[in-house]
Specification:
- The chain has about 350 residues and is of the alpha+beta class.
- The chain has eight helices and 20 strands.
- Helix 3 packs antiparallel against helix 4 and helix 4 packs parallel to helix 5.
- It is globular.
- The structure holds adenosine-5'-triphosphate.
- The site of adenosine-5'-triphosphate has 11 residues, from helix 1.
- GO terms for molecular function: ATP binding.
C-alpha cells in the first residue's frame, strides 16, 4: 500500500505542497485534479523521488522516504507515464517496451492486451498519439512497477481518442493490479475513471473521496465549482430538508446543522418547463452540448440557476420558463454566505 503522510514540498523558500495525507489500496486508481499551478506534477515528482521533500514521509512497505532519508528513483519501483510519451525515437515499439527488461515474456502480454501487435516493428514517429501512449504504458507495466504515476497521459490527444484510451488505460492498470495516481485537468475524466478523486487547491487537498461523493457532496464551494457546473440558491435547512424558492428537496449539511443555507444545484437537479403562464424565471443563455442543452435561468429572486434539457427542447435566451427542484438524492447545503 502506498501511503503519504504530512508531506510538504518546497521550491526554495516557496512551499507549494503542504500537509498532504493520502493512502492507496492495492489496485486503486486515485485521480488528482486541481487548477493549473496547484502542485499536481510536483507531488508526482516527489513520489517518484525526482525532487526532495521538506517534511513528512512516503511509505510503500518495501521502502520509506523522509526529508533526511532519500530513496533514489530507481529503488522506488515506480512506473511513470507522461503526456509527451517519452519514447526512444530510434527504437521500434518492441525495443521501446523491452528496453532494459530482463523478462521479455511480460512485454508480449502487454503488447497483446494494449492492441499493439501490428505495430511492434514500427518506430514511434509513424504511430498516432494514442498508439504512442499505449506503447508508453506497455513499457511501464512490463517492468512490473509497485506503483504507477500518470501525468496528464491524455492531454495531447484529441477528444474522440481520449474517451476510448482512458478506459483502456484503466483496464490495463486494473489488470496489472498496481496502485496508480493519475493527474488530469479534465474533471469528466477524473470522475469517470478514478476509484477516488483528490481535489487540490494551492498545494493542499480539499477532499479525497469517491467520485460520487466529491460531485454530490463536495467538502466546500471550491470543490463544488471545480468538479462541474454549480449554482447556489438560498434556502432554509431543517430536519434533512432544504426549502428554496423553487421547491423542497432532501439535503445534507456540509458545514452546518440547520438554518439559513446555500443549496448546491447541479443542472440535473433542476427541472425546466416551458410554461409561460406559470413562469418563475427568464432564460439568460443557452449552451448547445450535442445531446443536451445547458440553460441558465435568472429567477425572480435574482439568483441564476442552470438546468440541462434534451437537445429536442428548443429554449432561447429571453424565454419565460418554470424551474423546480427535481431530485431524490440529498443536495449539499452550506452555511449561507452573507453578501
Ligand atoms: N522547478 C521549479 N522551481 C520553482 N517553482 C516551481 C518549479 N516547478 C514548479 N514550480 C511552481 O510550483 C507550483 C506548482 O507547480 P506544478 O507544476 O506542480 O503545478 P500543476 O498543478 O502540475 O500545474 P499544471 O496543471 O499547470 O501542470 C507552481 O506555482 C509552479 O510555478
Amino acid at each position: 500500500m502506498l501511503s503519504v503522510s504530512k508531506l510538504a514540498i518546497d521550491y526554495g523558500s516557496n512551499r507549494v505542497v503542504s500537509d498532504l495525507d493520502l493512502s492507496l489500496g492495492e489496485s486503486e486508481i486515485l485521480m488528482l485534479v486541481g487548477p493549473t499551478g496547484c502542485g499536481k506534477s510536483t507531488i508526482l515528482q516527489a513520489l517518484a523521488g525526482l525532487i526532495p521533500i521538506s517534511a513528512g514521509e512516503i511509505n510503500l512497505g518495501t521502502w520509506r522516504a523522509t526529508p533526511k532519508l532519500h530513496v533514489p528513483p530507481e529503488k522506488r519501483r515506480v512506473g511513470m507515464v507522461f503526456q509527451d510519451f517519452a519514447l526512444f525515437p530510434h527504437l521500434t515499439v518492441q525495443q521501446n517496451i523491452c528496453f532494459r527488461l530482463k523478462d521479455t515474456s511480460l512485454a508480449e502480454h502487454w503488447i497483446e492486451l494494449l492492441g499493439l501487435g501490428a505495430f511492434v516493428d514500427k518506430k514511434p514517429a509513424t504511430l498516432s498519439g494514442g498508439q504512442k501512449q499505449r506503447v508508453a504504458l506497455a513499457r511501464t507495466l512490463a517492468h512490473q512497477p509497485d506503483f504507477v504515476l500518470l501525468d496528464e497521459p491524455l492531454s495531447n490527444l484529441d477528444a474522440a481518442l481520449k474517451d476510448t484510451l482512458r478506459w483502456d488505460i484503466r483496464n490495463a492498470l486494473k489488470a496489472a493490479g498496481v496502485p496508480a495516481i493519475w493527474v488530469t485537468h479534465d474533471q469528466e475524466e477524473a470522475l469517470s475513471v478514478g476509484d477516488r478523486v483528490g481535489v487540490l487547491k494551492e498545494g493542499s487537498i480539499q477532499q479525497i473521496d469517491t467520485p460520487e461523493h466529491c460531485f454530490s457532496l463536495p467538502s466546500n464551494r471550491f470543490v463544488a465549482r471545480f468538479l462541474g457546473e454549480a449554482s447556489f440558491i438560498a434556502g432554509d435547512y431543517q430536519h434533512g430538508q432544504a426549502s428554496t424558492a423553487i421547491g423542497i428537496a432532501p439535503a445534507q449539511g456540509i458545514d452546518c446543522d440547520s438554518g439559513a443555507v446555500d443549496v448546491l444545484l447541479r443542472p440535473d437537479d433542476v427541472l425546466l418547463a416551458q410554461n409561460g403562464d406559470n413562469s418563475n424565471g427568464t432564460v439568460t443563455w443557452v449552451r448547445f452540448e450535442g445531446g443536451s442543452r445547458l440553460c441558465a435561468v435568472e429567477l425572480q429572486c435574482n439568483t441564476l440557476v442552470t438546468s440541462r434539457v434534451s437537445h429536442e427542447v428548443m429554449v432561447r435566451p429571453g424565454d419565460k420558463v418554470h424551474v423546480s427542484l427535481s431530485t431524490s438524492h440529498p443536495l449539499a447545503v452550506y452555511q449561507r454566505h452573507q453578501s
